[in-house]
Request: fold
Amino acid sequence: MARLADPELADRRRRQILDAAIACFRRRGFHQATMQEICAEASMSAGALYRYYASKAEIIGAIAEDKHAETDVMFLDAARKGSAVDALSLVARDFFQKFADGDGALIADIFAESIRDDAIAEALHKINARSTAYCIEAIKTGQARGDVDRNLDPKQAANVLFAAIEGIGLRRAFLRESDPDAALADFRELAQRYLSPPHE
Amino acid sequence: MARLADPELADRRRRQILDAAIACFRRRGFHQATMQEICAEASMSAGALYRYYASKAEIIGAIAEDKHAETDVMFLDAARKGSAVDALSLVARDFFQKFADGDGALIADIFAESIRDDAIAEALHKINARSTAYCIEAIKTGQARGDVDRNLDPKQAANVLFAAIEGIGLRRAFLRESDPDAALADFRELAQRYLSPPHE
Amino acid sequence: MARLADPELADRRRRQILDAAIACFRRRGFHQATMQEICAEASMSAGALYRYYASKAEIIGAIAEDKHAETDVMFLDAARKGSAVDALSLVARDFFQKFADGDGALIADIFAESIRDDAIAEALHKINARSTAYCIEAIKTGQARGDVDRNLDPKQAANVLFAAIEGIGLRRAFLRESDPDAALADFRELAQRYLSPPHE
Amino acid sequence: MARLADPELADRRRRQILDAAIACFRRRGFHQATMQEICAEASMSAGALYRYYASKAEIIGAIAEDKHAETDVMFLDAARKGSAVDALSLVARDFFQKFADGDGALIADIFAESIRDDAIAEALHKINARSTAYCIEAIKTGQARGDVDRNLDPKQAANVLFAAIEGIGLRRAFLRESDPDAALADFRELAQRYLSPPHE
DNA sequence: GATGAATGAGCATTCATTCAT
DNA sequence: TATGAATGAATGCTCATTCAT
Reply:
């Protein structure tokens, strides 16, 4: 009588829960949002939800990874085709858009959580290492091409630039300035000046 | 004979509560830390604590302002004496030290809280406006002197640089890299390259 | 298979809570009885109770209405069949029985609460208007028949008689005189003399 | 150096506390009003207040007696001079005025408290016995004179009439009808008809 | 697989009362 | 006498999680 577990259904349900949780966490933060709210948002009973995620912490972990991972996909292509600044701008633009969409507080929550919680930090470090690796690659390519100052340490520069993207996004969310294009312009100017070789 | 209400005592108690709350919030975050923990940390009964702060939210607000305001004092002097980069470095150094001291998650919490809560945001905007004003001044002075590129918009540049400080601090906390001098070196290089006039 | 929310269960639980609350409120009053006591009396956890009533105030409101409404049912029949005094006596008897059963203080609490709280007052006014309407009808019928003095204003008389019932009940509870039949005799004598046409 | 306790001061302070407590209890009820509120209303520190009353319960007891006693003074004179109805009307008028002044809920609280608390009840019974005695006297005088039906039991009648006064006052407070003269008219009509001998 | 009622420890907050000054 | 800061148990209420159906 019993059918085997349908893995597609499980994936669908997990996605449904994550989306609901993201919506709730945006509005209220990880620790203020309740499981009941998430259940309601996901149109799902508590029992059903707990079949897919064993605890609130697990959902938080899943979302942190999820948010961090999204950016990754587009990087590689862009990095080869254009300059380092153009590739980074693509990432930055995407990131700023999230802030414009109301993800600012959630991203800050993820920072807080990953600073405090080693398990989450570890998961995010892996994702971050990959993104950084692409960026380092792009910077090295730029240095080879001559658009990027050869005196810069590629890894250090990659981290500084990611930090700048995050900082600009956060600060603009704090200041209620939500135009992602303005944020991007700020970032491009910073990146350009930071990366350019002297006497350009 | 009647003893009059002692305003010094009130100040001392408030400080005591804030310090205890900061310790708890660092470890556990605003919404996970309990009032009982704060009371214990402050060696104070719940009743005593509530004489000085009417609610947990009020403590959160007070700490947010407190943390934000700390940096301010030193800025003005530094800005007149040295270059814009040197003045900013002073602020940055101080900020990075907080991360090294374990304030990273708390600062992220403050970002999250101020993005979500308009009342807290408003209070912080005032404090931030003052800091930014000093920085803008320093940049203008640098432009007059010729160490700062005249093509930069001072206000925009000030915000970008603050954003960079915050981003670098957060990212390093996330990566468990706690050396504030390394962070400062990263920031100085970024600021130098960003602010310098071309053909230097 | 999914079980649908059972509305009967909800009704049962609500009744169970109300009964427990009435028992507690009788003994200790609205504001001295604790939710824990009510939970214990209802053999229910706090969480379960709060699924059915959102707050203590809501329970107080529900009980106030409940107590007030109980009398209503029997009136109409009685009013048609017998004299106004007989119909009123039925209500009075029922009311005095409540005092004999220990409801006196609770009824006084309901008065206090409804005098102070407009929301509760409003709800009770509706219920009261219905009871009064039946009584007015009975008095008018009596006037038509000739057992009731035609000089009396029916509405005014109805309110005076209800007031007398309440006053007698309260005063007897205060005096620890709990015999409902003695109370009823007092009331009948008063009502008879008050309503009778002169020269009878 | 130390002066002996000044008994006048003590009386003044006690009065001050009682007045403040009455004001608070009116607004919020015995068990919802806090000692802090009473202290503030009395412009007195908690320590000072507790020198004069050992507990909140003691204040409640004192107020209950106080409220009940107020009526007493005027009765005796009136009872001798006019008819029983006139004497009772004086008391009733005074009582209805209290309701008009906002004492309704407090009076209901006193009923509740005295029904539940034997100590308070006992104290009030004494005061009540005195008032009732005066009323009984007035009724007997009326019976002797012939304005009061000789078939009525004087004690029973006195209690019924007091009950009616209380019931009318309470019910009007509940209905938000605050005109004391209208209440008095209701009562006079009731008392007149209740007390009058037949064939008048 | 899914439901949603139930749990109960835990939470922020209050308040009658005390006591050092 | 008077003050008012302090106490801390108790309050109304919440919520992550479980489990019988």
Remarks:
- Chain C touches chain D through 47 residues (CB under 8 Å).
- Residues 142 and 171 of chain C are 29 Å apart (CA to CA).
